[in-house]
Design goal:
This protein is an alpha+beta fold. Helices cover 27% and strands 23% of the residues. Bound molecules: flavin-adenine dinucleotide (FAD).
Length: 304
């Protein structure tokens, strides 16, 4: 283990790419939970991102990729490996009138501000989703029947080699993309937008803003569960009598039952509550809820 750790340190000590060690998931996820990774690369450019991926792969160091950490639950013990964080891999280039190239770490807020300034519409539904573009594309994030896959022209990924995936090749579906089935780093995305007046953009943003007003405040990952075909996970959880149900320092939100809020708990608490919710909903309705949240680390040690 010592050898392994010093190998990792040497490998990560190569110049040029910013490194943090240890990398605290609790400070880099919206849940504010999870242990540490030994270290993280914070590439700023495509070249650095590819180099980080290659160094970790060549040294056989296990690693996770993290965007804004708004859809992950990291175990309390963290990971014995590294992270590639895209938080500094940001930038937007206008390729032509209605096509934008975004580096994977670009935030949704940053992108919406860029679009509004240039009278470009079509992405307003991303308002309030605290994602990086890479994380949004990986998850096919969206609301009420619209999702980022609708705007994607193509995605550049890296798995030791660069590949460009067209929208069709991404197989976007409800909270799903091809990238979920492979181990690859999303480097950049080309999105399609359209000309729109600032007034129209603001109107659409306030529509989505209003829809989000009822969402719970507090530390969360948004909806923990996917909606099953033809039903709402939040409704089923509520009808199973679980609104407000607490495990340790976390609870099912009173406002939206698919949200689990962290109020001073642990990742183990969240994981235990997820299991309780799944069991209760399955007993009452015969429906097995599927998690939208992505697990990172080992959850065999949770107190469930
Ligand atoms: C308050 C709140 C509200 C939310 N509302 C919504 C909503 O309305 N709709 C919705 O769909 N989601 C919502 N979410 C969930 C979350 O914001 C989305 O799933 C988002 O797309 C995650 O992006 P991220 O950058 O935070 O990804 P992360 O949480 O960092 O990562 C999520 C997954 O994507 C992978 N990933 C991230 N970046 C890359 C990359 N560059 N290359 C390869 N893999 C990558 C990670 O490895 C991980 O598996 C909400 C979350 C919160 C906290």
């Amino acid at each position: 283990m010592l050898l392994y750790k010093s190998g990792l340190k040497n490998c990560l000590n190569e110049p040029k790419i910013a490194i943090v060690s240890p990398f605290k998931f609790s400070e880099n996820t919206t849940y504010g939970l999870g242990g540490n990774a030994i270290a993280a690369y914070l590439p700023k450019t495509i070249y650095e991102a590819k180099t980080a991926f290659d160094r970790l792969t060549l040294n056989a160091i296990p690693f996770e990729i993290l965007g804004k950490g708004s859809n992950v639950l990291v175990s309390d013990s963290g990971i014995s490996g590294a992270v590639i964080s895209t938080k500094n891999l940001r930038g937007i280039v206008r390729l032509d009138k209605n096509r934008l190239l975004c580096l994977a770490g670009t935030g949704t807020g940053e992108l919406l501000a860029y679009c509004k300034k240039r009278s470009l519409g079509g992405l307003e539904y991303l308002y309030g989703i605290p994602a990086s573009l890479g994380g949004a594309v990986y998850m096919n994030a969206g609301v009420s029947g619209v999702a980022i896959g609708d705007n994607v022209e193509c995605v550049r990924i890296y798995d030791g080699k660069s590949h460009v995936l067209t929208r069709e090749m991404c197989n976007f579906a409800y909270r799903h993309s091809t990238m979920r089935d492979i181990k690859a780093l999303i480097l950049s995305i080309i999105v399609n937008v359209y000309d729109s007046s600032v007034e129209e953009i603001e109107e659409r943003i306030s529509f989505y803003k209003q829809r989000r007003n009822h969402l719970p405040k507090g530390k969360s990952c948004g909806c923990v569960f996917k909606n099953p075909e033809g039903a709402s996970a939040g409704y089923l959880i509520e009808k199973a009598g679980l609104k407000g149900f607490k495990v340790g320092g976390v609870y099912v939100s009173d406002k939206h039952a698919s949200f689990i809020i962290n109020d001073g708990g642990s990742a183990g608490d969240v994981r235990a509550l997820i299991d309780i919710v799944k069991n209760k909903v399955s007993e009452k309705f015969g429906i097995l809820l599927d998690e939208e949240v992505v697990y990172i680390g080992d959850f065999n040690d949770f107190n469930g």
